[in-house]
Amino acid sequence: MSSRLVAGPLALIAAAGVVAGPLLESGLPAPPQQWVFAVLCLPLPALGWLLAVRRPELRYGWLLLAAALALGLSVLGIGLSARGDGHVLLTALIALSAVFYGLTWIFVPLLFPDGRLPSRRWRAVAWLSGGAIALHAAGNVAYGYDPYHLPAWPLSPVRLAGALVSAAGQLTTWVMAVVVLCGLVVRWRRSERAERGQYAWMVGGMAATAVGAVLLSLFHFGGLRYGAVGLVGVLAVVGSLPAAIAVAVVRHRLLDVRVGLRGSRLHLVFDLRPTVDEVLSDLGTALEQTPEPVEQLARLAAAVRTGLDLRWAAVTLADGTRVVSGEQEGPPVLELPVRGGRIECGPRDAGPLTRVDRRLLEALAVPAGLAIQSAGLVTRLVNAQEAERRRIERNIHDGVQQQLVALIAGLELARATGAGPEMLANLREQARQTLADLRELAAGIHPSALSQGGLVEAVEERCSRLPVRTTVASPPSLRARRFADEIEGAMYFTVSEAVANALKHAGASAVEVRLALDGGRLRATVADDGKGFDPRTPARRGLATLEDRLDALGGCLTVHSEPGKGTRVEAWVPVDG
What we know:
Elements: H1 2-26, H2 32-41, H3 43-54, H4 59-81, H5 88-110, H6 123-143, H7 157-190, H8 193-218, H9 228-252, E1 257-262, E2 265-270, H10 276-288, H11 293-308, E3 312-317, E4 322-326, E5 334-338, E6 341-345, H12 355-363, H13 365-417, H14 421-445, H15 448-453, H16 455-464, E7 469-473, H17 476-479, H18 485-504, E8 510-518, E9 521-528, H19 541-552, E10 556-561, E11 567-574
Parallel strand pairs: 7-8
Antiparallel strand pairs: 1-2, 3-4, 3-6, 5-6, 8-9, 9-11, 10-11
Helix pairs in contact: 1-2, 1-3, 1-4, 2-9, 3-4, 4-5, 5-6, 5-7, 6-7, 7-8, 8-9, 10-11, 11-13, 13-14, 13-19, 16-18, 18-19
C-alpha cells in the first residue's frame, strides 16, 4: 500500500507536467506537434508507476518514475518560462532536464532489467555519472539557462562558471552514456538465448535515443518548438526507451503481461503474479486450515507453482515423501534445499525463471521449511504410534493371550479329571502370573504410579526396580506439582528409555536422574558412568521417537556422550508457571 501512496502522486505530477508544459507554451488551441509530444511522454510515468506498484521490490520502476518526474517538471518549467519573465525557480525546474537525460541515457540502460548494477566493476561508472549529472544540472542553474530568457553577453563570472561546469558535466554524461551503451551491447552478446531478446530491445531503444539526441542538438529551435526533424529527434529521445522497456517487460514477464486472444479480438492479459507478502499470507492461511501433513505439502507445492507461474512444483521430504502440484515433465530447473527436505521447480509457462522469482522462492524457504518439518514430525509420530500399537498387540498375542489359553485349557482339564489341590494351586499361580503380566503391560502403556502420584513418584518407582545403584533428585516443590498428561508421559518415558539404554547398552554401574523446574521449563537429566558412545554414529531409534514427541510439545532432547566417559541425556518441555 505504501508504494501506491508514493508512486501514484509522482506519476500524476510527471504526467501533469508533460501535458501542461506544451499547452502553456503554445496556448490553446495547441498545434498537433504539442499534443504528439505530450502523448509520447506519458508512457514513461505510466510504466514507472506500474512497475513501482506491482513490483515495488524492483528499483527499476522507481528509477523510471524519477526520470519521468524530472522530465515533467522540466517541461513544465519551460512552459511557464514562455508565459513570463525568467525566475530562479523556473530555472531550477528547467535544469531538471539534465537529470532526465542523465537518467535515461545512463542509469536506465545500466540498471536494466531489475535495478541492479551488472557487477561491482560498474560502481565507478555509476558514481562518476551521478556526479556528472549533478554538475550538469547545477551548472545550468548557475548559468541561468532559460530558452526564452538567455543571459546577455558578456556573462558575469557566476554565469560563466556555471556555463563551464554545465559543459563539463554534459560532456562527461555523453562519454558515460557511450560507455554504458557499449557495456549493454556486450551484455546482449553474452546473454543466454532466453534473455537475448530483452537486451536486444534495450540496445535498439538506446540506439534510437542516440539518433534522436543528435537530431535534437542539430535542429532545436528553442523551448518546445521544433522543426520537423527536431520534432522527430525529441520524440525519439522521450519515446524510444519507454517503448523498448515496455516490450522488454512484456517479453521478460516482469509484470506477467502477455498478448492474448478473446474471441476474434486481440487484447492484453494482465496476469499479475502475487507479491511475496501475498504468497506468504495465503500460504500461512492455507497451512492453518489444513491439519493433514500430506495436504499441507500439497498446499505448499501449489503455492510455489502459482506464485512463480510454473508448470509444476514438488515438495520432497528427507524420508522420500514427495508431493507434486501439476504434471511433472522432465527434470526440475531449480531446486531449493529447505529444512527437512527440498522444493523442486519445473519450467515456467513462459520465459525463464528470473532473479525476482528466485528471491520469491528464497522468501518461501522459512515457512516452507517449517511446514515440511511439521509434516515430517507428524508422519514420524504417526509411524511411532503405529509401531507402539503393533508392539502392544504382539505382546498381548505372544504373552498374555497364550497364558490365558493355557489357563483355560488347564481349567477344562481340571473339571474333566476332578483335579486335586495341587493342580488347583498351579492353576491359581498361573492366573496370578497372567494378572501380573497384564499389569506390567499396562504400566508400559501408562504407569499407574504416574496417574496417581505424579512424575517424581513414577520415576522413583521405575528406578527402584533397577539392578544398579540409581539416585533420583528433585526439589520438594516439584513432587506436589502436576502437569498435563502428555507432558508427564513424555518426560516419564524419556527417563525410562534413557535408564533402559544405560543398562542394556552402556553397561553402567550407577545412574543419576535429576528432575527440575526452572524458567518455565520442566527438565530431566539422566547421567550414567557407562562406556559411552559417539552420538553421531548409532541409530537411536527409541530416543529419536521420544525426541519427536518432545518436539511436538515444543521441547527438546539432547544427548552428550563420548567413548569411555559415560552418557548424559537432557530433555525439557515448556510448562505454564
